[in-house]
Amino acid sequence: MGITHIYIGRAGNFSDVGLNLATIRALPGANVVFEQDGVAVIDIRGLEP
């Protein structure tokens, strides 16, 4: 089944290497299902492998 969601915590949006919400949000098929106070959950099941 694999990974279906990505969690980005307050410390997860690093300035260099790390998960960047703006970049992930721009991917076709990525769906932000929750976002509040610097925390986000993204459904990535729609991304192409």
Description:
The chain is mainly β. The protein has one domain (5-43). It is 10% helix and 31% strand. The protein is built from 1 helix and 3 strands; from the N terminus they run E-H-E-E. It has one helix at residues 21-25; strands at 5-8, 31-36, 39-43. Strands 1-3-2 form a 3-stranded antiparallel sheet. The longest helix has 5 residues, at 21-25. It is globular. 4% of the residues are buried. The mean pLDDT is 86.
Give the strand tally: 3
Radius of gyration computed on alpha carbons: 11 Å
The biggest sheet amounts to:
3 strands, antiparallel
Number of domains: 1
Low-pLDDT windows of residues: none
Structural class: mainly beta
Query: Mean of the pLDDT scores?
Result: 86
Q: Report the total helices.
A: 1
Helical content, roughly?
A: 10-25%
